[in-house]
Design brief:
Layout: H1 2-9, H2 14-22, H3 34-52, H4 59-84, H5 88-115
Length: about 120
């Protein structure tokens, strides 16, 4: 944070920069982008996982392997809203998504264990 302030102030006049340094930043909302960043990380992880799946030529296996990553991404995003969200209806939806997706991931992992070549 201090480095960012220094970079930003590099082009600012000395008196103005001094005023900025004296400013009380503690009441500013520095977490506004945090959920967005967390969602972006979850989606990046999901896409990387899906793209890392090595095609086998078996449509069923390939589908299940990709969907496991997709479902985990949904769980990760739902957990963000459970932690950071405010709307009770959306939080309830997120709880249902976590429960359903975890159950489906287990089903898919079990299926893969029985069918993967």
């Amino acid at each position: 944070m201090a480095a960012t302030a220094l970079v930003l102030m590099a082009g600012v006049s000395g008196a103005h920069a001094e005023d900025m340094m004296k400013m009380d930043h503690s009441k500013m909302n520095h977490t506004m982008a945090a959920p967005t960043d967390i969602y972006a990380d979850a989606m990046k992880k999901m896409h990387e996982g899906m793209m890392s799946v090595k095609p086998t030529g078996d449509a069923d296996v390939d589908f299940v392997q990709g969907m496991i990553h997709h479902h985990q991404g949904a769980i990760d995003m739902a957990k963000v809203v459970l932690e950071k969200g405010k709307d009770p209806e959306i939080k309830k939806l997120a709880e249902g998504i976590v429960k359903a997706q975890e159950s489906e991931i287990k089903l898919m992992n079990d299926w893969l264990a029985a069918h993967k070549k």
